Structure formats: structure tokens, C-alpha cells
Amino acid sequence: MLATYLTAEVIQIKIEVKDWEAAVRAGGQLLFEAGKCTSGYIDAMVRTVHEMGPYMVLAPGLALAHARPEDGVSEVGLSLVTLQTPVNFGNAANDPVELVISFCAVDHESHVDVLKALAMFLREEENQNLLRNAETVEQVLGAFSAQD
Amino acid sequence: MKRLRIMTVCGFGLGTSLVLKMTLDEVLSNHNIKAETFCSDAETAVGQRFDLVITSRDMEKLFANVPEPVVVVDNFLSTDEVQEKAIPVIQKMMEE
Fold first, then answer.
1. Residue A57: which CATH number?
2. What's the fold here for domain B5-90?
3. Residues of A identified as active-site
4. What's the rounded Cα separation, in Å, for the pair A111 and B26?
5. Any idea where the domains of chain B sit in the sequence?
């Protein structure tokens, strides 16, 4: 399931960003380039953090960035960005963030299975470490296909 | 025994709160507790019918004026944290 969504074109490893906003934009850009959402969706992802707060940093070092289906989504999509230098989102408990997973959903149901697969994958600490430490996209892809 | 309605809340009710609901469902299942769990968004959450809220620190203030208990969780993937914080509250409520 994860390997179907998290393909090489939507993964970037160890990129350097200046702040959380650039990290979220990088994740959104991958969804946009893969044809999953509009460029307006990327802006909406950033706006969501500004307006709602950094609650989407849902575990130590890990952000799940997204906006709403009505912000311009074509189909369910996921992307993964890992950061060379961790950035703070303003979430005291879970900063700094090294892994940014972005997603776009078309409704409240169709992404549930893939998000469940993602949550099960991330619940294993060794999987999170693998993503954090990966030096190449291939290493990450290998982990996702091993999960399936 | 009372069957509780437990609500997880995030901004839009479709991402973060869904992950939290999955963690909660696993913890409840480990404890053989049958409860109704569902996600809600920040805008409509307060108007929902629920017995208990589980959410993030950011969202806690939404429930400042509701009588139902609010459990704040930092790590939404951690069954340990959800268990430690929510299960005592849930067990106490079920006994009432």
C-alpha cells in the first residue's frame, strides 16, 4: 500500500530548508508535480499551520502536513521529505522536525487505508530511524516495499 | 456498562485526528474496551455529542468551556502515551 503511493517521484532525501514553511512547501511541491493537487493546495498547507497551529507535528520529529480536500486536490497523494538540518514548527513537545510527510485527500474516507498503513509503519521506531538516516531514495523505497 | 463516545480532534478531522483515532483504537482493543471512536474538525467539534475528547495541545483551548474531560496527547503514534493518559480516564468513566 505505501509503496504504491510513496514512489521515487514524491520522495526527497536530506534536503536543506531554511524554515518549516519551506519544508512544507517542498512536500507540497512534490504532490503538485505528481499531479495530485493544485499549486493553491501548497499555499493552503502553509496557511493551515499558521491558522491552526503546529498540531500536525504529531510525533517527535515528524510532521503530517496537509490542507482540505476543497483546497484543490485531484486524487489521494502522499509525499515524503527528509531534512538535512531539522527545523522547528513551534510544537514544544515534538520539535525539531526531520521528517515531513505531506498528503492530499479528496474526501474524508478514501485516504483512510493508506494513512493506516503509514501509521502502522511509523509506529515502529526503527522504521522512523530508517527514514531519518536514509541517504538515498532507494533505501526508503526498500523499506516501504518490505512493509507491503 | 456504559459505551463511551470518544472524539479525536484536529484542524480538519481527516489527518492528524485519524492517526490518533487509529492509535486509540489499538489501545482500546488491547484493553478489551468497546467504545465508539470518531474524528472531528476544529470548527464543528464542540457541537458534537461526545463523552471524552482526545486531542493535541493546540486544540485543547477549544474545549475550555465544555464539561466533558479532555485528554491531551503529544505523540499521536504512541500507544504507550495514549494508554497512560486516556485509559485511566476511560475506565473511571465506564464505572460511573
1. 3.40.930.10
2. Rossmann fold (3.40.50)
3. 66
4. 19
5. 5-90
Predicted ipTM? 0.92
| Bridge-based pairing state of the strands A97-104 and A77-87 | antiparallel
What residue ranges in A16-76 does DSSP mark as E strands? 62-65
B94–chain A nearest CA distance, Å: 28
- How many structural domains comprise chain A? 1
Q: What residue numbers bound the domain in which A108 lies?
A: 2-147
Q: Residues B5-63: pLDDT tens digits? A: 999 999 999 999 999 999 999 999 999 999 999 999 999 999 999 999 999 998 999 99
Chain A / chain B CB contacts < 8 angstroms: 74
Q: How far is CA B27 from the centre of its chain?
A: 11
Report which DSSP code applies to B14: S
Do the beta carbons of residue A121 and residue A53 sit within 8 Å? Answer: no
